[in-house]
Every structure is written in C-alpha cells, then in structure tokens.
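User: I'm writing a tutorial on reading structure tokens. Could you give me a worked example: one chain, its sequence, then its tokens, then a sentence or two explaining what the tokens reveal?
Assistant: Sure. Here is the example chain.
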Amino acid sequence: MSTFYIEMRSIAVHASISLAFFDDIPLGRSRMSAPRAYRLLLALAAAATVSSSHAAAIASQPFDIEVGTVQVFNDRLGAGRFFTGAGTDRLRVNARVTPSPDTDFYDQSSNGGETASFVTHPSTPGLDTRLQFVGLQSGGGGGKNDYTTTFNLANPFVQGQLAAWDATPFALRIENPSAPGGETTKWVTAPDYDSSVNLPFLQDVAITGGGLAPTLSWTVPDTTAPITNIRIQLRRIDAEEPGRITAATLVHEAVLPLGSNGYTLDQAFSNGGLPGLPSGLEQGSKYEVAVILESAEPGLIKGRARTFFEFTPLTDDAGDRTIYLPSVDSAGNFNFDIEVRAGETILIDPVVAVGYDYQIGSGDPLFASVTLPNVGDGIFELWLYDLNLADFVFETFLDAGERFDFTGGGVDRFRVLGIEPSAGLDPTDVQAFVTEIGFTGNGRFTGRMTPITTNFTPVPEPSSLALLALAVLALGGLRRSCRAGGSLR
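And here are its predicted structure tokens:
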C-alpha cells in the first residue's frame, strides 16, 4: 500500500521537471488545471495508504533559503499573443529559489509563500526590482521554483544603465522571515551580463502534412553569436480573446539537435503522462509553438530568441502541401518572413475575418498574383489601393481558385472582402483561408496581413465614390443571386 503513495509522489516530481524553463508571464490570468488534480490525488492517496505516524514524518515545515541557478541574459521575444512584452528585446534576470509556492505544494515546505526576491545594482541607486514568481503553481509558464523579471531594452533609462550593468554584475536579495536557520535574508551575486549576445528570429516558418503528425520547418538566419541550444515548446491554446491567448497549457517540449531546421510531431508528448494532458496532437485543438534559440556557456544562458507561431492540425486529406505560418501579434496583425521567387507562388494562412488587407514589407518584391480558397460562397471582392485617394477602391469580383494577375508590374497592397461571417471559420485554423500569392521578383516577403472585422464598413471619399461603392455592393448581391440560381430582371 505504501508503494502506491511513493508512485503518486513521483508523478508530482515529474510534473515539476517536465514543464517550461523560466518562460514569461502570460497575457491572460491562466492557471494550470493539473495542480488541483495533483492536490486531490495526493490527499486521497495519503489518507488511504499512509499511517498517521508516517504522515507526521512528512508534515509541512519551514525551509531555509536556498538559491539555485541564476541567469542574466538578453531575451528577445518575438510577436505572439500569450506572453507579456511580445515583440520586445529585454534583459532578463531569473533565479530558482527555495522555499517557494512550488516547494509548499511538492516538497512540504510551509513558508514558500513568504519568499520575496529582488534584484539590485551598485551603480544604479534606487534599483530594487522584485522578481515575480512564475513557477509551476503560478500558471505563469516557468519551471519549478522560478522567479523572474525583465528590463525593456528600448526604455531610455535602461539604455543609460546598460554599460554599467555590463561592467558589474547584479546582486540578488532573497528574503523569507520564517527561514528557520536564522538567515532570513540572503545575498547572491548574479553571473556576468553580456549585452552583445543577440540571436535572430526564425524565418520561413511552415507546416507540411495533414493528420496528427505534421512537420514544422524553419530557417535559422546567420548570426555572429554562437547557437548552443535549440528547444521547441508546444502549448495547447485553452482560451483566447481578440488579440490575445488568455490560457494555454504546455503539453510538449524537446531539445533539438544543433542545426535543426524542422521537427515532426510524431512522438509522444513529454507531458503526456500527466493527468488530463494529451499524449499527442488532437484534431480541433489549437496550438502555439515556440522555437527557442539560445547562446550559453556551461549552465548559463547569455542570449535567447523565441519565435512564436500558431496552428491547428490539418485534416488527413490535406496531403503534403506546405503552408507558411505567421507570427500573430497582440494587435491582430499576421507577420511573415518568407523567401520568395519570381514566377513561384506560396501558400500563406492567417486568422480570418470578413476580409484582409495584404501588404508587403519595406524592400519586398511586389505582389504579382493572388488565388483565393473555396470558402463560403466562393465569391470575393478584390480592392486595389489608389494613391491619389489614399484608400482602397473596388477592382473586380474573384471566384475561388481563380488566379488574378496584377498589372502594371505588380502592387504593394490589396484588399479582399466578401468572406461571410456565416461561414463560421475558426479564426486560428491553419487551413481556414489558405491564400496563394505570387511575387514579381526574388527576395523576402516580410509583410503582414491585417484582418478586417465584421464591423468594417468601407467609407471612400468623396461622396460620389461612396455611391459607387454602394452600387458595386448591390451588383455583388445580384451576382451572388445569379450564381445561386436567380436571374437579373
């Protein structure tokens, strides 16, 4: 009977080492559901299998302060909808400290909730920044006993301090008034910070293959900083609002071989053995992927860059087509960085609404053609941008699968309307609105797509254009009626 109790404890320990390693705080107030299940299971197991004398031996008690790994490094966070500060470059200070709320839950400490961690610097009077607990019990995405804080490198105050912070290490102060050994405050010196170590974000992010074992692929740009580690993390999106993911669960993570430019999701998830978590991808679920590049010395990270992108599994009949995926930012924009060639087309897919604005990035080749998917009634409106009016004007109707070639050497932007809200498209489904685009030359597509929401109403100026737009929309309705079997009378 006591063996069962030991096995239950091992499950909790496994949970503590298999989850994320000091990640950010989510935008939403997410909280993992597993800990509540653990607490109930452990309580039931202990009550049923452990004698009162054994239970007394493992009763909660205060722990002394212990500081484990401390990290200070450049942390580049790509565009994403889950973690705070997405799209910023930051200096991160992270420490693994016990006791913590994690040791209260997993290891029977009684004073973990009283721990407070602060970072200071001798050259910056008044700097006394508290590190936030982001460990397993926080739902904040970190590893066991993790405390962290960041400094935005774009902040003018931070910029003015970087040289001094680079020259002299930070100090950490850890406080716990209930530490039993009498040392209620502990000071530690942080490792050296190197402001020069900056890693790039991934390019050419794509997914290939239908079913529940697709292959993710990417390109790692050239970098002067050495890449010493590549990791991948997969989170199931549990709840979302416009512009943000409010709850997500880490279901899988893996360390990849150096030089990896892809990963196939054909193996059991690393957290699949935990209660309530899946062993692999599930149809209908949505996921956020983080591919993480790190530059580290033994045991110490010096720089990190995380690229985020989202997808849902394609159906089994999707074949081996490759779809390029965007990073979705909190403003609702879909950001691409893809190599393109003249005369070739690529498939891209963002979140869908009732329409999209497509625009290239600075220096990109122009759009040469567009082919739209069969969604809703399969009839769409193509609008082109008029520089004189500084607005989009209606150009033509497009049928699904009909290739439209832009004249005049290509265009730098265009708009697609006519996606019916009644189509009920999942706004993060990777195959919801797969658009085929061609380009006029070789280069990179670093542009974006901006969704047009259901409350969009075109209001071109002057008033005569407004009347023209209404007439076009009316004709569009008649055209749709004809396609459905009606006639013009």
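What the tokens reveal: Residues 1-22, 28-57, 455-489 have pLDDT under 50 and may be disordered. DSSP finds six helices and 28 strands in the chain.
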